[in-house]
Write a structure and sequence with these properties.
It is built from 19 helices and 15 strands. The chain is an alpha/beta fold. It has three domains: 220 residues, HUPs (Rossmann fold, 3-Layer(aba) Sandwich); 76 residues, Tyrosyl-Transfer RNA Synthetase (Orthogonal Bundle), CATH 1.10.240; 77 residues, RNA-binding S4 domain (Structural Genomics Hypothetical 15.5 Kd Protein In mrcA-pckA Intergenic Region, Chain A). The strands form four sheets. Strands 1-6-5-2-3-4 form a six-stranded mixed β-sheet, with helices on both faces. It has a five-stranded mixed β-sheet with strand order 9-15-14-11-12. A hairpin with a 3-residue loop joins strand 14 and strand 15.
Length: 416
């Protein structure tokens, strides 16, 4: 594409690799060039924290604000009651209103690290779509909104088509999700003048529906922009690791473990991740990403510290880096390692090493912990652990014990 943007936001999106597709590059670019414009991304409240898979969207909202526009974080208090079927093989479990409210409260903490909220023209807004979805009259909604949707067209969208092609059930409840998301876009335009919806490329069909509905019902001109669905260079989905999801809330994943996730980035991904997840100049991202051999490790440490600083602050990033250096370079314990604190009641007459490996988050299950030990991948206080039946009593845990899974993942176990 040879289009040269006028607006700073589109320029950043193109230069840093955020852009997968746009419904109208020129129209959106010209609208953004006129001054502060509201744009939004929707986040369903399916867990108490977002994970790294959502970070590309959060960074898009951050850049929207940094380039003089107004980001809207739309919380799906209403749509979470339905569940987004996009590219899922099964129906999402339904949550209670209390669970949804608790999840929204947890997610809100992450956004405040990246966005500045307030009442100014470029201050971010947090809005819950339950405001308008909870009180909808079903018959009025069918008559006024439902008539604008073609079932034939909805069936053609890849997110629905892929599910039906695999002959997997798609409930009527889920089928309504895309109508509700389209209605969200129209409401945000009507209430707040929001002209832009962004999301991952799996949201393309939902975004296009919202643009069509807004034009048909209130003759509004709105735009959609999508980011690539990110996988690592070895084909894995971004945001997952051996030990589970890489959560953004510090009470669900420590800043040290978050830092360590980025430090373990594959060489081939370093330059791309620096562009997407940090604010370093593009030239510097490219220079660091091109380093080879042992020098690429310095780039990975820079990546880990920059990303951790944005989310958890410079102090937490520096502590994580210092701990990593202590653990890896000097073979020590480090002050910031994830720590499992047990009571004497937890330990009783003794607790198995397999249980400790699972409880400390170094393995997802007992079976995985036993395999780790069998394959010589587990260590206790830096000594090879080869007895899966080992039991530790309170005396053995009187001073902190360091457990390791492979060379890069560690945890401390102690008694309070």
């Amino acid at each position: 594409m040879t289009y040269h943007p006028k607006s700073e936001f589109i320029t950043v999106m193109m230069e840093r690799g955020f852009l997968a597709d746009c419904t109208d590059y020129q129209g959106l670019d010209e609208a953004l060039a006129k001054g502060a414009q509201p744009g939004y991304i929707g986040f369903d409240a399916t867990a108490k924290s977002l994970h790294v898979g959502s970070l590309i969207q959060i960074m898009m909202l951050r850049w929207l604000q940094k380039t003089g526009n107004k980001p809207i974080t739309l919380m799906g208090g209403g749509t979470t009651k339905v569940g987004d079927p996009s590219f899922r093989a099964d129906e999402r479990p339904l949550l209670t209103p209390a669970q949804i409210d608790a999840n929204i409260a947890g997610i809100r903490r992450v956004f405040s690290a990246y966005l500045s909220y307030g009442d100014g023209p470029t201050d971010a807004m947090m809005i819950d779509n339950a405001e308008w979805l909870d009180d909808l009259n079903y018959l009025d909604f069918l008559r006024d909104i439902g008539r604008h949707f073609s079932i034939n067209r909805m069936l053609s969208f890849e997110s629905v088509k892929s599910r039906l092609d695999r002959e997997q059930s798609l409930s009527f409840l889920e089928f309504n999700y895309m109508i509700l998301q389209a209605y969200d876009f129209m409401e945000l335009y009507r209430r707040y003048g929001c002209i832009l919806q962004m999301g991952g490329s799996d949201q393309w069909g939902n975004i296009v529906n919202g643009i069509d509905l807004t034009r048909r019902v209130i003759d509004g001109e709105v735009y959609g922009l999508t980011s690539p669905l990110l996988t690592t260079s070895d084909g894995k989905k971004m945001g997952k690791s051996q030990s589970g999801a890489i959560w953004l809330n510090p009470d669900m994943l420590s800043p040290y473990e978050f830092w360590q996730f980025w430090r373990n980035t594959t060489d081939a991904d370093v330059g791309r991740f620096l562009r997407l997840y940090t604010e370093l100049p593009v030239d510097e991202c490219d220079r660091l990403g091109a380093l080879e051999g042992s020098e690429i490790n310095a780039a990975k440490i820079r990546l880990a510290s920059e990303v951790t600083t944005l989310l958890h602050g410079a102090e937490a990033a520096a502590a994580a880096e210092a701990t990593a250096r202590e653990v890896f370079e000097k073979g020590g314990v480090g002050d910031d390692l994830p720590t499992l604190t047990l009571t004497r009641d937890d330990v009783g007459d003794g607790i198995s090493i397999v249980q400790l490996i699972v409880k400390s988050g170094l393995a997802a299950s007992g079976k995985e912990a036993k395999r780790l030990i069998a394959e010589n991948g587990a260590r206790i206080d830096d000594a090879l652990l080869n007895d899966a039946g080992l039991m530790l009593d309170a005396a053995a845990l009187a001073s902190p014990v360091k457990l390791s899974a492979g060379k890069k993942r560690h945890a401390l176990v102690q008694i309070e």
